[in-house]
Design goal:
The complex is a heterodimer of chains A (284) and B (555). Helices cover 34% and strands 16% of the residues of chain A. By secondary structure, chain A is an alpha/beta fold. In chain B, α1 packs across α5. Classes of the chains: A alpha/beta (284), B alpha/beta (555).
Chain lengths: 284, 555
């Protein structure tokens, strides 16, 4: 199926100024490019969690699995293992992916499953109206922490480097060209690709004035150098005042989980029944 | 052997965890299998790796068994505890064979140390000496031992045979076991039978996190994955297990998961997603004694109502509770076909007794499983994943299907799979799922949903489910009672069950839980149980203990 409209007729309910619009628009452009280059969008699957980010599953007119909170990654893993010919993209939230589903994120990195994870990191729960998330800055006053959170944020870049992710990047919802390049690279990357996208929440954490003067695109950084990637990742800890590096921190070629296994010998019913009969003989 | 009116023999093998008791039991079982007996093997072990007391009871019977008695004809003791703990199981003529290096007892002692050092054999081969000794004590021919060893010992056969022969030559025949007329049958555990059924049902991926008593299915399918052409995954936790399986389903591949109560608790959110998103998946839910960690390696039937009601919201599900390995093969295949035909979650509800027990399995008696119909040819254009249909079943398409945008959704959704909060649409889709439940219930008439055995016209019936099939059948046989056992627990086969109970005056519920969960469920459907016989100490009923309790309540 080609030339389909890439946006559905579903009513868009993101707040005006929401960073999700940029991510959706960028992803739509990437899909259009892929289609122009001759790839069938029938072979693309978008998996979302639950949260403001996840509405993208309703809005983009491609295959989608609108899953449950925190569980984009295991769903995406199952889809990819079932059909390695599919391009599987997760759009996850920061509460979704770093709180509820952190175990899956770490294991996806550890096993190097060939999927792309885009985290819409607005550093606040939007849909549940403004609580702190794992990446909210220390002292963040949300509805569940009116006195300010006493927790130090996770640094997802550092976390993913420690976890063994083979493509680790940070984007920003106000840098569309960079994000487009990052998403394209992630899809092309053989293995687990991770992009933490700093995203504006217009209602609960409108941080553009904080980010815009601090962000810079890395130049001259060697993305194959793990130590350099770790040093860059630690430059900003998601709470202190520091320059915020954007771009790709690390990329590495590494064996992909389950590769080729599904394509290996696929017995028909007759051959399988022969294997069953062999088993029964062994048990007799 | 004596006093049962038929050939019957029970052998208890006990030792420390790590002594290979289960394997020794399996060899004794094969010897009796090749002597023409129908086998049940019960393996009892605490939740530890080394040092605790393990024992296996192998029961051979001329006709089908599926349960163990409380008294035994042979005791094979590898440790002193086997002698002390199981004294209650001895009869006056029970033959005792023991490792005299470790055990003081009356009977026939063997010095395993002497035999092993004479043959320069490793410690684990001591079991072959004990089995050789047993064969002689039971009057088996050496050729029979050789034949069974040859086909069941993959490594070090000659050395094992020499070790066994020394003990065989040392001992006297004290308790001859007469041959029976059955041809040898495959000996399968319940979990292996589930694996075979799932494979026949077209299983493409098995995903599981280890948890007793489901783990042996993970091990079995992992071991056989290349021959059966399966993908076997052991992910980070049970939440990942069920969500990965739903990913497979979305991509059109048949997946199953396996767990026990605690792991299933973690899967319930994913189960509800399967209900809402109408994704097929098969669960092996193998029960153990609860609540919580409970008795990890012991049995129970206390999760029926949990499995029936698990997951938020209302959606159809299939629950089958096989009581034998033949039924486990049949119903695991059927569960897979039904899950995919109706796009529902399906459960194989087992327990430690069935999952880890070993049974003679006659697959020639298993009928062909109806395959059901696929509606994938009836897809709408443009494709609607949740198209409203009279049957409630929407024609399926999967990710990667050319020309179809497939939108799977956990939210309330419209026919296309787009999120909705409109009252009218929510109402429509809820009624669609309810209609699907009705269609599923009607389709169950293809199957024999309720098993009836024993005296079919008796006015007293035992109402049971799952692994108590064997013990109930045996006790009912002795007492002239009827056994009524629903194999389908959801959709509840109320009409078939009422029919099976026609003409009864007394219904006795027999369950391995503390609150009579099947009796409760039957009660909701207007079926009354007059008596309840319950066991909830983690151990299965024995024919003796159950028979005594039933006699006490018989009218």
């Amino acid at each position: 199926m080609t030339g389909r409209p890439l946006i559905t007729k579903a009513k868009n309910t993101w707040c005006p100024g929401c960073g999700n619009f940029t991510i959706q628009h960028t992803l739509k452009n990437v899909l259009a490019e892929m289609e122009q280059e001759g790839q069938s969008l029938d072979n693309v699957v978008l998996v979302s969690g639950i949260g403001c980010h996840a509405k993208i599953a309703d809005y983009l007119n491609i295959n989608s699995f609108y899953s449950i909170h925190g569980r984009t990654i295991p769903v995406a893993t199952g889809i990819k293992l079932a059909n390695p010919g599919l391009t599987v993209i997760c759009c996850a939230g920061d509460g979704d992916c770093y709180a509820e589903g952190l175990d899956h994120l770490l294991f996806a990195a550890k096993r190097n499953i060939d999927i792309t994870v885009i985290v819409h990191d607005n550093r606040v729960y939007g849909l549940t109206t403004g609580q702190y998330t794992p990446t909210s800055p220390r002292g963040f006053k949300g509805k569940s922490t009116p006195l300010g959170t006493e927790e130090t944020p996770l640094n997802p870049i550092e976390l993913m480097l420690a976890g063994g992710a083979t493509y680790v990047a940070r984007g920003y919802s106000k840098k569309m060209d960079l994000l487009r390049a990052q998403i394209r690279e992630s899809i092309a990357h053989k293995g687990f690709a991770f992009i933490d996208v700093l995203q504006i929440c217009a209602t609960f954490f409108p941080a553009a004035d904080y980010y815009s003067p601090r962000v810079y695109e890395m130049t001259g950084h060697d993305r194959t150098n793990f130590e350099a990637a770790c040093a860059k990742a630690r430059e900003w800890d998601y709470t202190s005042d520091a320059p915020i590096a954007l771009g790709t921190f690390y990329q590495k070629a590494s064996p992909v989980f389950g590769e080729g296994k599904m394509a290996a010998w696929k017995p028909g019913a007759v051959e399988r029944e022969r294997a069953v009969q062999d088993l029964l003989r062994k048990r007799t | 052997m004596r006093g049962y009116g038929m050939n019957e023999v029970s052998v208890l093998i006990g030792g420390k965890a790590g002594d290979g008791i289960n394997n020794a039991g399996a060899m004794v079982a094969q010897l009796l299998n090749h002597l023409g007996y129908r086998i049940y093997l019960y393996f009892d072990y605490p939740s530890l790796i080394r040092g605790g007391h393990n024992f296996a009871i192998v029961r051979g019977r001329e006709t089908v068994t599926g349960t163990c008695g409380t008294s035994v004809d042979f005791v094979l003791a590898l440790d002193q505890e086997t002698v002390e703990r199981h004294k209650g199981a001895w009869k006056p003529d029970t033959a005792m064979i023991f490792n005299q290096d470790q055990v003081k007892a009356k009977g026939q002692g063997i010095s395993l140390q002497e035999i092993l050092s004479a043959e320069k054999a490793p410690g684990i081969m001591g079991n072959s000496a004990v089995i050789g000794g047993f064969a002689k004590a039971a009057g088996l021919s050496w050729e029979a031992v050789e034949a069974v060893f040859s086909s069941h010992i993959p490594k070090g056969l000659d050395q094992n045979l020499r070790v066994a022969r020394r003990a065989y030559d040392m001992l006297a025949t004290v308790h001859p076991v007469a041959p029976c007329s059955n041809p040898p049958a495959p000996l399968l555990t319940g979990n292996e039978a589930v694996g075979i059924g799932l494979a026949r049902g077209g299983l493409e991926a098995y995903i599981s996190y280890p948890m007793t008593p489901s783990s042996s299915l993970l091990h079995f399918l992992a071991e056989e994955q290349e021959k059966l052409g399966l993908f076997v995954v052991h992910p980070e936790n049970e939440i990942a297990v069920i969500l990965m399986a739903l990913g497979f389903a979305g991509a059109g591949k048949r997946a199953a998961v396996g767990t026990s109560g605690g792991g299933f608790c973690l899967m319930t959110e994913g189960l509800s997603l399967a209900g809402m998103a109408e994704l097929p998946v098969v669960f092996l839910m193998s029960q153990r004694t609860g609540p919580s960690t409970g008795l990890p390696t012991y049995t129970g039937q206390s999760d029926l109502l949990f499995v029936l009601h698990a997951g938020q919201g209302e959606f159809p599900r299939l629950i089958v509770a096989p009581g034998t390995t033949e039924e486990a093969v049949y119903w695991s295949e059927a569960a897979m076909h039904l899950a995919w035909e109706f796009q529902v979650p399906a459960f194989i509800l087992s327990d430690k007794t069935l999952s880890e027990g070993t049974y003679s399995t006659d697959l020639s008696a298993v009928p062909e499983v109806p395959k059901g119909t696929s509606l994938s040819g009836d897809r709408t254009v443009p494709y609607l994943r949740y198209a409203d249909t009279p049957s409630g079943i929407s024609p399926p398409a999967f990710f990667g299907t050319g020309g179809a945008v497939v939108k799977v959704n956990s939210y309330a959704h419209d026919e296309a799979g787009i999120t909705t909060e409109e009252a009218e649409m929510v109402d429509l889709m809820t009624r669609k799922r309810l209609r699907k439940a009705e269609t599923l219930a009607q389709a169950m008439s293809r199957y024999q949903q309720v098993n009836i055995s024993g005296n079919l016209t008796a006015p007293v019936a035992l109402l049971c489910w799952g692994s108590t099939a064997g013990v109930c059948r045996e006790v009912a046989g002795n007492l002239g009672l009827r056994v009524v056992r629903p194999v389908i627990l959801s959709p509840f086969p109320v009409e078939s069950l009422k029919k099976a109970l026609e003409g009864t005056a007394t219904v006795i519920a027999v369950e391995e839980n503390a609150t009579a969960q099947l009796a409760t469920l039957a009660g909701e459907h207007g079926i009354t149980c007059h008596e309840k016989i319950l066991r909830y100490d983690g151990r299965p009923f024995t024919p003796e203990s159950l028979g005594e309790k039933i006699r006490a309540v018989l009218p």
